Amino acid sequence: MLEVRGLSRSFEPGKPLLDRIDLAVAPGEWVALVGESGSGKSTLLNIVAGLDRPDAGEVRLDGRAVDYADDDALALWRRRHLGFVFQAFHLLPYLDVGGNVALPLALLGAGADERRTKAAAALAAVGLAGLDARKPGSLSGGEMQRAAIARALVHGPRLVLADEPTGNLDEAAASAVLDCLGDAVRRAGAAALMVTHSPLAARRADRVLRLAAGRLGA
C-alpha cells in the first residue's frame, strides 16, 4: 500500500539525512521506525505525509506517486487518504469528543448526520462508546489518545502515521493505547507507520526498522 523508493533528503550539502531510503508497508501492517534523536525519523514521516519534500526518490500510495508540486492537491490528498496520531493529542478543547473525532469528515464536506454516525462508530471501536458529548478535558490521557486514534481512522484513510503516540502516557495507558491502535489499523486494513523511542511501542508493531546514518535496517 505504501512504497518509498530511493528517498533522499539533505539539509546540508554533502550530508544526507536520508540516503536512498526504500520502504514498503502492506495493507493492515503496522511498522515501527526507531533510531536516535536527529536520525531523520520525523523527516521521513513528514515526507511521507507530504509536509516536506524529498531531494530525490518518490512516495507511492496504492500505486500512485505523491505529487509534491501542488500544495492544494497535497492538502486534499492528506485529507482523503491519511490519518495522523501525535504525541500531543491535539483535541480542540471547545469541541466535544464527537466533534473532534468528526473533524476529518467535516473537512471532506460530510453532512452532520454522517459525521455524528461515523464519529460514534469510531469511538465505539476504540472503547469510548457514549462519550461523544464529553469535552476532551474530562478524559484521561489514555482516553484522549484513543479519541485521537478514532479521529485518525474515522474517514477510512489508507495510511496512518503516528509520531510518538505514547510519549505522554504512563506504561499502563500506553499499553492500552497500543492495543487500540494495532486493532484499529488491522480492522481498517490501513497501512501504519509509527515513529517511536519507546521499546514497548516498538514491540507491539508487526515489524521494526531502524534508521541510522541515513539508511534503514532491521
Describe this structure in words.
The chain is built from 8 helices and 10 strands. It is an alpha/beta fold. It has a single domain (2-217), classed as P-loop containing nucleotide triphosphate hydrolases (Rossmann fold, 3-Layer(aba) Sandwich). α5 (112-125) crosses α6 (141-153) and α6 (141-153) packs parallel to α7 (171-188). The mean pLDDT is 92. It starts with a strand and ends with a strand. It has a 6-stranded mixed sheet. Strands 2-1-4-5 form a 4-stranded antiparallel sheet, covered by helices on one side.
Tally of individual helices: 8
- Gyration radius, rounded: 17 Å
Termini separation comes to 20 Å
Mean pLDDT reading: 92
**Low-confidence parts, pLDDT < 50 over ≥5 residues?**
none
CATH homologous superfamily label: P-loop containing nucleotide triphosphate hydrolases
What's the helix-strand series?
A: EEEHEEHEHHHHEHEHEE
CATH class descriptor? Alpha Beta
- Total number of beta strands: 10
- Structural class given helices, strands, pairing? alpha/beta
| Backbone shape | globular
CATH topology: Rossmann fold
In what range is the share of β-strand residues?
25-35%
The main sheet orders its strands as 6-7-8-3-9-10
Helix content: 25-40%
Please tell me the total number of domains: 1
Which architecture name does CATH use?
3-Layer(aba) Sandwich
Question: Biggest sheet, in brief?
Answer: 6 strands, mixed
Features of the shown structure:
alpha/beta, 218 residues, 4-stranded antiparallel β-sheet, Rossmann fold, 27% strand, 6-stranded mixed β-sheet
List the helices and strands and how they pair.
Blueprint: E1 2-12, E2 15-25, E3 30-34, H1 41-48, E4 56-61, E5 64-65, H2 71-81, E6 82-86, H3 97-101, H4 103-107, H5 112-125, H6 141-153, E7 159-163, H7 171-188, E8 191-195, H8 199-204, E9 207-212, E10 215-217
Parallel strand pairs: 3-8, 3-9, 6-7, 7-8
Antiparallel strand pairs: 1-2, 1-4, 4-5, 9-10
Helix pairs in contact: 5-6, 6-7
